[in-house]
Design goal:
Pfam family, one: Glyoxalase_4
Family: Belongs to the methylmalonyl-CoA epimerase family.
Helix content: 10-25%
Order of helices and strands: EHEEEHEHEEE
Strand content: 35-45%
Largest sheet: 8 strands, mixed
Organism: Schleiferia thermophila
CATH topology: 2,3-Dihydroxybiphenyl 1,2-Dioxygenase, domain 1
CATH class: Alpha Beta
Number of domains: 1
GO molecular function, one term: metal ion binding
Strand order of the largest sheet: 2-3-4-1-5-8-7-6
Keywords: Metal-binding
CATH architecture: Roll
């Protein structure tokens, strides 16, 4: 079962510029920067109250973020939901006809196991499942 929204992922062209702008917007600095080589991204996390915002910059032209920005421009890339048991949720979603973009969970940013649900199955929204490791 899905829990709270874990974070909202925002694709950006220039992480340093975006961090400066979001620092001004949110009135707080990012608490963490992390490279996720498996996804080809550099991430930066902000806390806004109890909510997290993840800024994502592509590290190479083959990353999903680079392709997203090329196609749609900067903006909201995904909504991530906290789950207690990612394996159980993946099975439940597969059995319900959802297309998962990952066969198995993989290590993501912020010490999480992650899996993505194809946006066509969620009315155009890329959904990420996140389980704390």
């Amino acid at each position: 079962m899905f829990g709270k929204i874990e974070h909202i992922g925002i694709a950006v062209k220039n992480l340093t510029e975006a961090e400066q702008r979001y620092t001004q917007l949110l009135g707080t600095s990012p608490y963490k920067r992390e490279e996720v080589a498996s996804e080809g991204v550099l991430t930066s996390f902000f806390l806004a109250g109890v909510n997290k915002i993840e800024l994502l910059q592509a590290l190479n032209s083959e990353s999903a973020i680079a392709k997203f920005i090329e196609k749609r421009g900067e903006g909201i890339h995904h909504v991530a939901y906290e789950v207690e048991d990612i394996y159980k949720e993946m099975d439940r979603l597969r059995n319900s006809g959802f297309t998962l973009l990952n066969e198995h969970p993989k290590k993501g940013a912020d010490n999480k196991l992650i899996c993505f649900v194809h946006p066509r199955d969620a009315h155009g929204v890329l959904v990420e499942l996140c389980q704390s490791i």
